[in-house]
Design goal:
About 45% of the residues lie in helices and about 15% in strands. By secondary structure, the protein is an alpha/beta fold. Strand 7, helix 7 and strand 8 form a beta-alpha-beta unit. The protein binds adenosine-5'-triphosphate and magnesium ion.
Length: about 270
């Protein structure tokens, strides 16, 4: 059975594309899943740049214009997943078009990840309508939280389940909202906490997802934990020092508990 997971937020720059790319990379390479990654930010596409594909030839827009079939837009990436790029488009796109195309192709994959636009427009609507489940990416500040609340509200109105929040660019300083604040405000569990990691930009500059560029960084390990929970598997941190630390510490972080609860829920469903 394939699952279509939309990665959304109603704010630019919070880390949707970084999350979509890295989850696809990890699911394909660390968990051996058949993965398709789709750039559904089709008014301002940029996912291809994260993957080193600077000028994609066949894109989703060609599919929408009936110039090619969806299968002809699939790019077989050397990171062991498939990818469909977008190219700049100025026309309005019927939000149902993406859903229909995903229906055609979904049986070939175990996980399909849709990277969304930051605007509450037809693009995001098309991602919501095409997804079985959503991940909402947010950063721990008031202005982003207000847009996250909106995203959660819209998803709930459309009846699309939200797997959880991904809290990105976390600096662990006093000015940030806490996990509890964010969970209380949104009513959604946090499934992952990603640090504000300068190397992400370095990785992007080298056109490589951070999970490949620095596979044992805190950020990469957290992506592997999130990906594992999504497919109800467990990931064991291979780093010696973090294993020693968790052996002596009795405290389990709330987002780790959330992941376990989510894993069990998926198993039951
Ligand atoms: N945890 C992180 N630490 C530091 N930089 C990050 C982190 N996550 C993402 N970035 C950087 O932030 C920038 C924006 O990230 P990204 O493109 O993933 O956001 P986005 O939500 O997809 O943006 P848009 O809404 O414009 O599509 C990129 O330069 C990316 O490398
Ligand atoms: Mg993006």
């Amino acid at each position: 059975m394939s699952r279509v997971i939309g990665v959304i937020s109603i704010k630019g720059g919070v880390g949707k594309t970084t999350t979509a790319v890295n989850l696809a990379t990890v699911l394909a390479n660390d968990f051996n899943k058949k993965v398709l990654l789709v750039d559904a930010n089709y008014y301002a596409p940029n996912l291809n740049f994260h993957l080193g594909i600077l000028d994609p030839i066949n894109t989703l827009n060609d599919v929408f214009q009936d110039k090619i079939k969806i299968f002809d837009a699939v790019y077989k990436h050397n990171l062991n997943f498939h990818f469909i790029a977008s190219s700049l488009i100025s026309r309005q796109i019927d939000p149902m078009k993406l859903r229909n195309q995903i229906k055609t192709i979904r049986s070939f994959y175990e996980v399909i990840i849709l990277d969304s636009s930051p605007s509450l427009n037809d693009e995001m609507l098309s991602v919501m309508l095409s997804s079985d489940e959503l991940l909402v990416v947010t950063t721990p500040d008031y202005s982003t939280l207000s847009t996250t609340l909106k995203a959660v509200r819209v998803a709930k109105q459309k009846g699309i389940p939200i797997n959880g929040l991904i809290l990105n660019k976390v600096r662990k300083n006093k000015c940030e909202l806490s996990l509890n604040d964010i969970e209380k405000a949104t009513g959604i569990h946090v499934l992952g906490i990603l640090p504000d990691e300068e190397k992400t930009i370095e990785a992007q500059h080298s056109l490589t997802p951070i999970t490949q560029y620095l596979p044992n960084s805190e950020m990469s390990i957290e992506y592997k934990h999130i990906a594992a929970a999504l497919i109800h598997e467990k990931y064991n941190d291979p780093r010696f020092f973090s294993n020693i630390k968790s052996f002596f510490s009795r405290k389990i972080d709330k987002h780790e508990i959330n992941r376990e609860v989510f894993r069990q829920k998926i198993k039951r469903d």
